[in-house]
């Protein structure tokens, strides 16, 4: 049985949606993607118990009230209901030790869920920062990322890779228990891992837009599905009465 991966969803104008690239990347790596709407805490518990992994996708800015700040003048659109749902999902998944991969906004939310804070606008708050909101196609890679931890170096097989980049916010103070796993040349935190979990990794770039052709992006999703497979293998077997 292939592992079942729950995907959070982007909210816009009375719609919930997921970019096809997330779904394609999970399927290519060997998983079955299931899209998750906003759920109550009770519903989350029932649903997460049936999953083998959680993918937290990108999207809107995070409401700064969730990390104890007032809005910066460059803050983009927020969807508070989505923040509430995604943060609760992340915390619940950590309690269950459910394998988790968090991308872009998801990377930032993982940090907030563990008590960290965010830089609300990189150009306004980090003098001399490299361009993190690229204007070229989403499959184009534009800046390098240094891989700092053994886990990231083993996944990617490198100490430095090149990524795409579509964000104006970033991790600032790192949440409790998280380890900085990757940084851009300007010091912006591009990757986190949570060593207390069996598998909990976040990246600031968008590997799902690269995974069809890029080896490093493929390796990230393969590592995630491998962890989900291990979780699935230890799930209680169904019995017939």
Report on this model:
It is a single chain. The chain is of the alpha/beta class. 31% of the residues lie in helices and 21% in strands. The protein contains seven helices and 13 strands. The strands form three sheets. A nine-stranded mixed β-sheet has the order 4-1-5-6-13-12-11-8-9, sandwiched between helices. α3 packs across α4.
In short:
By secondary structure, the protein is of the alpha/beta class. It has seven helices and 13 strands. The protein has helices at 20-29, 41-48, 80-96, 105-113, 122-125, 150-156, 215-233, and strands at 4-7, 10-12, 15-17, 32-35, 53-56, 100-103, 118-119, 143-147, 160-163, 170-171, 179-184, 189-193, 200-203.
Descriptors:
single chain, 241 residues, alpha/beta, nine-stranded mixed beta sheet, two-stranded antiparallel sheet, 13 strands, 31% helix, disordered C terminus
């Amino acid at each position: 049985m292939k592992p079942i991966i729950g995907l959070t969803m982007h909210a816009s104008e009375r719609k919930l949606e997921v970019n096809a690239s997330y779904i394609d990347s999970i399927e290519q790596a060997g998983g079955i993607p299931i899209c998750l709407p906003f759920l109550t805490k009770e519903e989350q518990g029932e649903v997460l118990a049936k999953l083998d992994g959680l993918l937290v996708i990108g999207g809107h800015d995070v409401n700064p009230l969730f990390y104890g700040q007032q809005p910066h003048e460059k803050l983009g659109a927020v969807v508070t209901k989505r923040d509430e749902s995604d943060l609760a999902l992340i915390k619940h998944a950590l309690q269950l030790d459910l394998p988790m991969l968090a991308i872009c906004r998801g990377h930032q939310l993982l940090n907030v869920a563990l008590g960290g804070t965010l830089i609300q606008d990189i150009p306004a708050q980090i003098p001399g920062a490299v361009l993190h909101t690229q204007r070229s196609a989403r499959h184009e890679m534009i800046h390098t990322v240094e891989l700092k931890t053994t886990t990231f170096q083993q996944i990617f097989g490198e100490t430095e890779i090149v990524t795409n980049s579509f964000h104006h916010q970033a991790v600032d103070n790192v949440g409790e228990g998280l380890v900085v796993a990757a940084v851009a040349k300007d010091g912006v935190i591009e990757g986190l891992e949570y060593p207390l979990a069996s598998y909990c990794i976040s990246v600031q770039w968008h590997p799902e837009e690269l995974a069809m052709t890029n080896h490093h992006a493929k390796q990230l999703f393969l590592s995630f599905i491998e962890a989900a497979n291990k979780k699935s293998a230890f799930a209680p077997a169904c019995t017939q009465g």
